[in-house]
């Protein structure tokens, strides 16, 4: 169910569209009852979608055969490719003669079929670099193929590389995008959504804006719809459509949001499994057994980078590595170690330029009006990492040698 209509949804005291030049100013303030479980006291999620999991059922053939080999061929027919089906079909026709002495050769040849498929073997991880061995046997940690998962995510980054697209948007500028992302941070906090949801929503927004010309009146609709899509992908209990309509101060209709959802999904060809830096950041922090405070500091730097249009082209794994290196330097915990280089694939030389840009962003923010991230990470729940002073340039350069 949506939020109570008597209250406003966000804590910034203004409607997002009112901060964009040319839009109508609405100054009604928001007063939401805060929850003690949230660092900003945000309300809990109001409702969830029903279970839309599809159970794929394999239907067996209705034609039963008496021959043992024929039954086995039917059982495996849905699992083999066309070439294997032809081979099994020829074996079946020969097996229908009724001679029992032909059963054994047929079964043995069928067992050799999987050997025709190429086997992909990952090189073994060196003992000193194996960060998953401590979770061996834990089915929830998937330690047996954790490295393969992140190698796969890193390989997908090439498909989602973006460039600065703002020159294609005649009615938008980077300041408007910054205001939108700042608002999306508040939405994530108010709904108590996962951090992965926020990162994915920003990615969806950037990808849609990179291929579609939009007017500024639709910018908030795109942001809220991206949050809805990301919530469906990442959350166990995503907010409902009415909640997202309400946080936009009912500026849009239900049909408009649903239509925008279709537009975004079609623009991305329904491929929304975009690698986000937050996942890589947690993986790389595990390599050096970083404390929760150090990880939170790196998360703070990474979340600040969402506001910067210049950071859009950066790959997620590279951005996560640079944020962690900067956090390690600020906490005086050493530099880039061999185990980090092994799992990330990046050297200090690769990270140097991006680390310097992140340090400049942290020292001199481009817009003091965008305070959602800094306010969020100034809370004690996040160890007040936003109050940690930036490291001086000399110390930074020493860590990059």
From TrEMBL:
Biased composition (Basic and acidic residues): 97-120
Record-linked CDD domains: CYCLIN_CCNB3_rpt1 (cd20508)
Residue span(s) of domain Cyclin-like: 182-266, 279-360
Gene3D superfamilies: Cyclin-like
Domain of life (superkingdom): Eukaryota
Stored InterPro entries: Cyclin, Cyclin-like_dom, Cyclin-like_sf, Cyclin_A/B-like, Cyclin_C-dom, Cyclin_N
Keywords: Cell cycle, Cell division, Cyclin
GO molecular function: cyclin-dependent protein serine/threonine kinase regulator activity
Region described as Disordered: 1-132
Residue ranges with Polar residues bias: 53-62
Domain Cyclin C-terminal stretches: 275-391
Compositional bias segments (type: Basic residues): 63-74
A biological process from GO: mitotic cell cycle phase transition
Pfam families in alphabetical order: Cyclin_C, Cyclin_N
Biological function: Essential for the control of the cell cycle at the G2/M (mitosis) transition.
PANTHER family linked to this entry: CYCLINS
Similarity field: Belongs to the cyclin family. Cyclin AB subfamily.
Name the UniProt record assigns to this protein: G2/mitotic-specific cyclin-B3
């Amino acid at each position: 169910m949506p939020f109570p209509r008597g209250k406003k949804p966000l804590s910034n005291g203004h409607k997002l569209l009112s901060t964009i030049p040319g839009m109508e100013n609405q100054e009604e303030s928001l007063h939401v009852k805060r929850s003690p479980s949230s660092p900003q006291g945000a309300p809990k999620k109001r409702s969830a979608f029903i279970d839309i999991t599809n159970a794929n059922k394999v239907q067996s053939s209705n034609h039963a055969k008496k021959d043992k080999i024929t039954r086995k061929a039917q059982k495996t027919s849905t699992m083999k490719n066309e070439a294997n089906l032809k081979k099994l079909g020829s074996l079946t026709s020969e097996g229908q003669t009724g001679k029992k002495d032909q059963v054994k050769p047929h079964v043995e040849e069928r067992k050799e079929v999987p050997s025709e498929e190429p086997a992909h073997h990952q090189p073994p991880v060196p003992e000193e670099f194996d960060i998953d061995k401590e979770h061996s046997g834990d089915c929830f940690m998937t330690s047996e193929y954790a490295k393969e998962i992140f190698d796969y995510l890193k390989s997908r980054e090439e498909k989602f590389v973006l460039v600065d697209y703002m020159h294609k948007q005649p009615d938008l500028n980077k300041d408007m995008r910054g205001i939108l992302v700042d608002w999306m941070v508040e939405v994530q906090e108010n709904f108590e959504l996962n951090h992965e949801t926020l990162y994915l929503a920003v990615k969806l927004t950037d990808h849609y804006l990179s291929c579609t010309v939009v007017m500024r009146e639709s910018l908030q609709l795109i942001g809220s719809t991206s949050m809805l899509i990301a919530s469906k992908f990442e959350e166990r209990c995503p907010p409902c459509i009415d909640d997202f309509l309400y946080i936009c101060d009912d500026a849009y209709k239900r049909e408009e949001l649903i239509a925008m959802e279709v537009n975004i999904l079609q623009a991305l060809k329904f491929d929304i499994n975009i690698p986000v830096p937050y996942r890589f950041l947690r993986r790389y922090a595990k390599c050096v057994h970083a404390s929760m405070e150090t990880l939170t500091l790196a998360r703070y730097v990474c979340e600040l980078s969402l506001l910067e249009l210049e950071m859009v082209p950066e790959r997620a794994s590279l951005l996560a590595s640079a944020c962690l290196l900067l956090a390690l330097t600020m906490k005086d915990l050493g530099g880039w170690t061999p185990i980090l280089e092994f799992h990330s694939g990046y050297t200090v030389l690769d990270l140097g330029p991006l680390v310097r840009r992140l340090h400049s962003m942290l020292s001199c923010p481009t817009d003091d009006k965008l305070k959602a991230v800094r306010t969020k990470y100034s809370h004690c729940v996040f160890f007040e990492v936003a109050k940690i002073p930036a490291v001086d340039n000399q110390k930074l350069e020493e860590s990059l040698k």
